[in-house]
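Hi D.,

Good news: the full-assembly prediction came through. Inputs first.
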Amino acid sequence: MNTPPNPLLVEGAKSYPPALAAISEFRRLVQAGCRRVLVSNLEELAGAMSEDLDPKLIINHAQPDKLGAGVDGRSAALGVQLWRKGQWRLFYCLLWRDGKLFAKTSIFIRNRVVAEQRYSVLNNKKQKSYPVYLQNREIYISKEVSLDQVNDFAKILGTLSRDWVGLWRSVGGLKLKSSAPKP
Amino acid sequence: MLHAAKAHSKQCETKLKGLLDKSDSRLKRLKDPLRANVGLHRWLSEDHEEAYSDWLAWMLEELNKVNTDLLELLGVPAPPGVASLDVAIEREYRITGGRLDLLIRFGQQALLIVEVKVTSADDAQVSKHKVYCQWLKRQEELYHLRGLQPVLLAVDAGEAEYEGFAPLLWEDFCVRVRRMLPKIQHRLGIVTAAMFVAFIGAVEQNLLHLVQPGSQGIGQSLFYARTADHLERSLTT
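Then the structure:
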């Protein structure tokens, strides 16, 4: 008896390498857009956060990065990151979550207590365009991007970035040294 | 997504042709590195990591002859005065616990380790980096040499550090060398410049998978946009 044809196997056999190339190109497009936004806002952001932010240290970010168990079919993130070893990681990215697409700026702070402190200070600011969230030591603001806005995602991320810069300026920067809990 | 990627790439093909022509005319008697068909050259095929290290060492030696700032080329922060010192490059330098792909000495003052990978930094074996960093620290203590930020040259990188080594992407390295090609041609002659072109061509075709217009295969023809962006970067200072 013949095995019934498996359409995924047939199509995959034809187009798996080009499909990977298409995904790779999509990632590159998004990451390049996010990089441009971060680079163009870096000086201002560095001033607002009172941190040295070196454009040479910006690297790509993809979550999940590899095909495998990390792929859940619902959530993903693509963008760029800049990090200070052992302290924090700053992200500018597009985020897919629960069937929606968002532009997101965030900072992951390694020290949970500091992350909660900084979130609390940022969240208490009255004048802000976007709500501030804290999830697993990551403080972020985000804005939904509809499919008809996606060509302008970098512009939306740029707008978000201006608010992000404003938030950090309004609280006097990251102040990790002064606010780190004593061991 | 595949259908859209094909359409997007097709749109970029004309732009890529224009950029290649612009690059050709900038190089005068030479042609753009992507014009050379080195994709099937066994010497610099994807799995000959040592050949890439040999070529890189040779290139750095040649660039040093015309007072190129190697630290800037390799993206290493330079302490005052170090960049202008005499440079000596050693391949496969043996230390206890391993061999360094490239060891670059800056006079009697500073040392730089460069590890060369033809894969992503995320896939590279970096467990020996700790040993290399410890060795570097010992040199600092014993000989008062300054250990410069070690470099991991790789195809891509998802982290900002790999056991003490800072990633440098081949893509960025190639863009920097491409920008220098007219100067190399002028100062080192057309034969040496042609060898640089061949090496850059091999890296770009075999490691970065950049392509020329008219490339065969759907997968490869999807990379016109990526290739055009790379050329555009190299043609703007």
